[in-house]
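We treat protein structure as text, and this decision shapes the records that our systems exchange. This encoding replaces a full spatial description with a residue-level series of whole-number codes. Below, we set out a record of this kind in full and without editing:
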Amino acid sequence: MFKNIQIRLTAFTLISLICFLTAFSVVSIIQTTRQVSIGAQRGLSNLFDKVDSLDLKELDFKNNPINYEKNNENGANILRRPNLIFSNNINIIIKDVNNDIVLQSDNDFTITRELDPFFDTLVSNSQRHFEEISINDNNYWVLTDYKIIDQELYIVHLLSNRHLENEMFFIYIRGLVMIWIFSIIVLGLISWFLAYIALKPARTSWEQQKRLIADVSHELKTPLTVVKANLDIPISEPTDQIKDHLIWLNNAYEETNNMTSLVNELLTFSRIDAGQEKMSFSQVDLHELLIATSNKMSPLFSQKSIDFSTSISDELLIQGDYHRLNQLIKILLDNAFKYTEKGHVNITAYKKHQHIFIELSDTGCGISDEALPFIFDRFYKEDSSRSKSGFSSGLGLSIAKWIVHSHKGQITVNSELGNGSTFIVKLPAS
């Protein structure tokens, strides 16, 4: 499902990118063509202003001598050196008012004949004419205007060959295409990656939801089966008295308590995920809280012949939620109670460097190295056979971690399989 969404997001991004790049390329080409046209017209206009005499002495011929050759066909003076006016791409043709050639920098008279319409246009409009034409598969910018040379009125044609200009333009187009293709590939990969990152929270939430449903179903299945099995016995003996089946009824009652605990923990996580679980902070003395909670739990350890001891410093003040901190201590003590069958459990609390440390150690079954990274995950239980002291939902330590983080603290565990565990809580002191 999420892969299809990722593909759609990437496709949408690429389509938008293609539209943008296409629009950018079209605008860029139009603007470049316009600037080239303006530049060519300005350049030819500047050259036009330098045409002052028929011998063109003032023009820059790059120190090339000017040799004239009389053309017997039309009597025109032909400039035999084509390197006129700053580059090889410029040709000049000067005509009199009768459209007869007076001076020409190229002996190609095909060009001259193609310019006859420009002569007619200039005569009819009496305005400078600038246009692009194609002659013999070559493109030219042509500027035509009247010019007074040596006190005579002439018509001057300036032609700029666009061969080099076209080559540069095609290189520019190829560059745009390469950039276009490269951008599509690179930004396509980036879009795919960003779509993956954007969907990661939703994917994680979806996976958590599926896992939650599977875990809840699994966790409720066993207690419901136990309840049903224990209630089936008295139901199958309707003539018996209740006292004859108290053991089965007590088993069913205990399992309903387990299910109630599980549902309450699930509701807590539901409110946490929805951001609805708020804390009420006030100054809390952890010394008093730890002593009170330890005194309540001490009889449970005595029943299992476990040595329970405390070492709690005075005035362990913290800004926190009293009820949640109480819940944290109960979760850690209950965890030690469940997984310790003999030996001792010790709780230590002290202040160090503006932090309060709570350490709870036991001599229980311990935790394997493989399980340590996941011990605070929801519903994680390394081995259900480890605990012989009742039901475990696998949510307690996850709630403990949330409580500690909500108080801007840290919780870690050191453990060795078969040699017990030590949970360390670090909280900022007030």
Q: What stands out?
A: Helices lie at 2-48, 109-114, 116-125, 163-236, 246-273, 286-303, 322-339, 396-406.
